[in-house]
Write a structure and sequence with these properties.
The protein has two helices and three strands. The chain has 68 residues and is an alpha+beta fold. The chain has one domain. The N and C termini lie far apart (41 Å).
Length: 68
């Protein structure tokens, strides 16, 4: 059987992040992360909250960075 991956809640982590902070999530959450980022940026457009997401070098993690 496959290895069990610990999934984290995404939105609360995004909202607690400070500018230039990074958080790591398992790659299995990539689609959910992209959706959460898009929703939160739309919801908080007037506050200017922005994040970026990229895959780690090993490809097993998604690194989310608070941009502004």
């Amino acid at each position: 059987m496959g290895e069990q991956v610990e999934k984290r809640k995404i939105t609360p982590v995004l909202l607690k992040m400070e500018v230039e902070n990074e958080e790591r999530f398992p790659i299995e959450q990539l689609d959910s992360i992209n959706t959460a980022i898009q929703r939160q940026q739309s919801k908080h457009i007037r506050r200017g909250l922005k994040w970026s997401a990229r895959k780690s070098d090993c490809g097993l993690e998604v690194i989310v960075t608070r941009v502004s």
